[in-house]
Design a protein that fits this description.
With about 425 residues, this protein is of the alpha/beta class. It contains 13 helices and 21 strands. Helix 9 packs parallel to helix 10. The radius of gyration is 23 Å and the shape is globular. The mean pLDDT is about 95. It binds pyridoxal-5'-phosphate. Pyridoxal-5'-phosphate binds next to helix 11.
Length: about 425
C-alpha cells in the first residue's frame, strides 16, 4: 500500500508530479511519501493497540538502518515511533530527529566500548547484548559510570529466514545473537551483576521474511526461554521480537498483513505479561519511497539486446547488485505503443551494475523518466559516491508540499572533504 499513483497518465508522489520533482531536484533522486509512512506506522500501532492485553505497552521501534534520513525519522518520531539503532551515529540521528532516549533500542553485533558508554549516557531504553564477551565489556563500561542499564539478551534461535541467503541473521552459523542453549546462563550471569539490569530477551532472524512460520517459531522459542528463566527466579518483563517482515516487491498479494503478524505475536505472547518491542524497518519504509531516474540512452544492439542505460547506478541503489533484489520499474509517464524488452543498467564500470534483465516496459527514449518502486528501505542508506558520482539526494513529499531533505553535494563540497596532504603542495 502506498501513495504513488497516476493522475492523467503521470506518476505522482501524493499530490506532487514526479516530473516536477525530477526537474527541481535533478535525477537520480529518492522520493518519500509522508502519507505512506504515516499509514504503515498507523496500521502497526492500531494492531498493537488491539492486542494490548497480550503485548502490554508495546514499543514500535523503526529500524533506523533501513532509512536514516533525519526528516523520515522526524516524521515517524512525531507519530510516537521509537528507533532501533545499531551504531552511535544512528542513536545520534534518532535523538536529533526527536526520538526520546527511552524509545531507543541499541542492537548490533560489534558495539565498541565508546558506543556502549554513549548509549548509557543517552539513556536508551535497552541495550541488546549479542554475546558473552560483549556482556563483560558492557558490565565494565557501566561500572565505570556507576550505571546499571536495562539490557535484553539477543538469542539466536537457529531459525534463519529471509528473502536471500545474505539477509538471514538467525541461522546457526550467522554471527548474530547468543546460541539458544547458552542464553539462560548468560541471563543469570547478567542478573548477578550490579551493573546491568536484564529485563528481557530479543531475537531478529532475518529480513524480507514472507511467511509467519519462521517468525512464530522464533517467538515461541523466546516464550519457552522466558518460562524457563522464571522458574529459576529470574525476572523477564520484555520481549523484543525484532523486525524482518517482508513487503510485496513483486506485487504479491499473499504476504502476511501487519494485522496477521501482530496477531500472531500476540497469540504467542498471550498470558506472559511482557511488554513487546517490534523493530520493523523495511515494512514501514520500503513502499514509502521510489527512486527517480532518467534514461541516458537506449542502446539497441545488433545481437537483439536492448540496454536502457539509466542515470542511476549501483552506487545509488545497491540492492540488486548486493542481494539480487527485485524492484518494479515503471515509466513515470504512460506511453502509447508497443512495449519493449529492456535490460536496465546503470553507468557504473562494474558488470554488477545491472538492475533488471529483460523487463517489459512501454517504448522509452532518452530523457524519459522511470521510477524504481519500493525503494524507501535499504536504498539511500546504502548509497556511495563510487565513480565520483555525487551522493544521491532525497526528497520528502507531504500532500502538495515537498522538500529536499538531503541535498546532492556539489563537486566542491565533495573535494572539501579530502584535504590535500600538506607535502603535496
Ligand atoms: C535490520 C534489523 C531490523 C529491521 O529489519 P527489517 O527486515 O528491515 O524489518 C530489526 N532489528 C535488527 C536488530 C536489525 O538488525
Amino acid at each position: 500500500m502506498h501513495y504513488f499513483d497516476r493522475i492523467d497518465g503521470a506518476l505522482h508522489a501524493e499530490a506532487v508530479p514526479l516530473e516536477a520533482l525530477a526537474e527541481a531536484a535533478g535525477t537520480p533522486a529518492y522520493v518519500y511519501s509522508t502519507a505512506t509512512l504515516t499509514r504503515h506506522y498507523g496500521l502497526f500501532r492500531e494492531a498493537v493497540e488491539a492486542h494490548r492485553a497480550s503485548l502490554g505497552e508495546a514499543l514500535i521501534a523503526f529500524a533506523v538502518k533501513a532509512n536514516s534520513n533525519l526528516s523520515v525519522l522526524a516524521t515517524l518520531a512525531r507519530l510516537g515511533c521509537g528507533a532501533d539503532t545499531v551504531s552511535e551515529g544512528e542513536i545520534r540521528r534518532a535523538l536529533k530527529a526527536g526520538v526520546p532516549g527511552e524509545r531507543i533500542v541499541f542492537s548490533g553485533v560489534g558495539k565498541t566500548d565508546a558506543e556502549l558508554a554513549f548509549a548509557i549516557e543517552a539513556g536508551v531504553r535497552q541495550i541488546n547484548v549479542e554475546s558473552a564477551v560483549e556482556l563483560d565489556r558492557l558490565i565494565a563500561v557501566a561500572a565505570v559510570k556507576g550505571a546499571a542499564p536495562e539490557i535484553a539478551i539477543r538469542v539466536n534461535p537457529k531459525i534463519g529466514a529471509g528473502g536471500h541467503a545474505r539477509i538471514t541473521t538467525g541461522g546457526a552459523t550467522d554471527k548474530f545473537g547468543v546460541p539458544a542453549e547458552e542464553a539462560p546462563a548468560l541471563y543469570a550471569r547478567a542478573a548477578a551483576s550490579p551493573h546491568v539490569t536484564p529485563v528481557g530477551l530479543a531475537c531478529h532472524i532475518g529480513s524480507q521474511i514472507t511467511t509467519l512460520e519462521p517468525l512464530e517459531g522464533a517467538f515461541r522459542a523466546l516464550r519457552e526461554m522466558t518460562l524457563a528463566l522464571r522458574t529459576q527466579g529470574l525476572a523477564v518483563s520484555r520481549l523484543d521480537l525484532g523486525g524482518g517482515l517482508g513487503v510485496p516487491y513483486h506485487g504479491q498479494t499473499d504476504l502476511p498483513s501487519i494485522a496477521d503478524y501482530v496477531g500472531m505475536a500476540a497469540g504467542v505472547l498471550d498470558g506472559l505479561e511482557v511488554e513487546a518491542v517490534f523493530e520493523p524497518g523495511r515494512l514501514l519504509a520500503a513502499n514509502a519511497g521510489v527512486l527517480l531516474s532518467r534514461v541516458i540512452q537506449v542502446n539497441a544492439r545488433s545481437d537483439g539486446r536492448t540496454f536502457l542505460v539509466l542515470d542511476v547506478g549501483m552506487n545509488d541503489l545497491m540492492r540488486p547488485a548486493l542481494y539480487d533484489a527485485f524492484h518494479d520499474v515503471v515509466a513515470v509517464r504512460e506511453r502509447a505503443g508497443e512495449t519493449g524488452t529492456y535490460d536496465l543498467v546503470g553507468p557504473i564500470c562494474e558488470s554488477t551494475d545491472v538492475f533488471a534483465r529483460e523487463r517489459r516496459l512501454p517504448p522509452l527514449q532518452a530523457g524519459d523518466l522511470v521510477a524504481f518502486m519500493g525503494a524507501g528501505a535499504y536504498g539511500a542508506v546504502l548509497a556511495s559516491e563510487y565513480n565520483s558520482r555525487p551522493l544521491v539526494p532525497e526528497v520528502l513529499v507531504d500532500g502538495e508540499r515537498w522538500a529536499v531533505v538531503r541535498a546532492r553535494p556539489s563537486y566542491d563540497e565533495m573535494w572539501s572533504r579530502e584535504p590535500r596532504a600538506d607535502w603535496l603542495g
